[in-house]
Amino acid sequence: MTEAPPVRRPAGSNQLLIDLGPIVVFVVAFNVLGRFEATKENAVYIATGIFIAATLAAMAYCKLRLGRIPPVLMIVGVFVTIFGGLTILLHDRTFIQIKPTFVYAFYTIAILVSFMLKQNVWKLLFGHAYALPDRIWNILALRWAGFFAFMAVLNEILRATLDFDAWLNSRPWVVFPLIFGFALLNAPLVMKHAADTEDAPVPEAQ
Predict the structure, then answer these.
(1) CA atoms 189, 190, 194, 197: torsion sign
(2) CA–CA separation, 21 vs 130, rounded Å?
(3) Whole-angstrom Cα distance, residue 19 to residue 24?
(4) pLDDT of residue 67
(5) What does the pLDDT read at residue 33?
């Protein structure tokens, strides 16, 4: 009888810290720099540079420690570098504000286009973590596509109604809890069907 391949689990809280750490660094750096007269005027641009450096450092850490850069972190790194670079180069903080909108829109479009091509990009990205039936991968992908579309609209609403300081500081208190909450809502579905897959009998080798 052949042995079933092990189901690899996500890196969990460590990977979460790696993914969200650069944003936290950005928020903290901006608030600290804004308290000093010497850096107050350019706090957003200095903090943006730190944000880019922290994101690239997270990517380098994953490459050295894990041997690979998670696709999601790689996508975020590209957007942070492009929009952060434009923010600094053009001295316009609008670019770093619209970065989340473009990231969420990119995720939404990527998921929907993959369905049109008879693929499931969500499974391609996270299939290494869980063995799930294709039906469950499709449900998860469509749920997250809808969530990302909602987050893109929400970012534009927050950007239009809040000043920059309030917008930036809303990320740890509004955006992060929404992401965590939505992930938790989907966790029972993932765990149930991952457990079902693990308990399924393994066919004997012929």
Answers:
(1) positive
(2) 24
(3) 10
(4) 87
(5) 94
Rounded average pLDDT over 197-206: 45
CA within 13 Å, CB half, 109: 7
pTM: 0.80
Q: Which contacts (CB < 8 Å, 24+ apart) does range 51-56 have?
A: 51/22, 51/23, 51/25, 51/26, 51/80, 51/84, 51/96, 52/80, 52/81, 52/84, 52/85, 54/21, 54/22, 54/25, 54/26, 55/22, 55/80, 55/81, 56/81
- What does R_g of the chain's alpha carbons equal in angstroms? 20
Angle formed by the axes of helices 13-33 and 71-90, to 10°?
A: 10
- Mean confidence (pLDDT) of the chain: 84
Instruction: Quote the CA–CA distance of 114 and 121 in Å, as a whole number.
Output: 6
pLDDT digit string (tens) for 91-118?
999 999 999 999 999 999 999 998 888 8
CA distance 87 to 203: 56
Q: CA 72, CA 106: separation in Å to the nearest integer?
A: 11
Tokens representing 3 are 């042995």
Taking Cα atoms as reference points, which of 158, 142, 60, 61 lies closest to residue 100?
158
Query: For residue 191, is pLDDT > 80?
Result: yes
CA nearest neighbour of 20 among 63, 64, 66, 51? 51
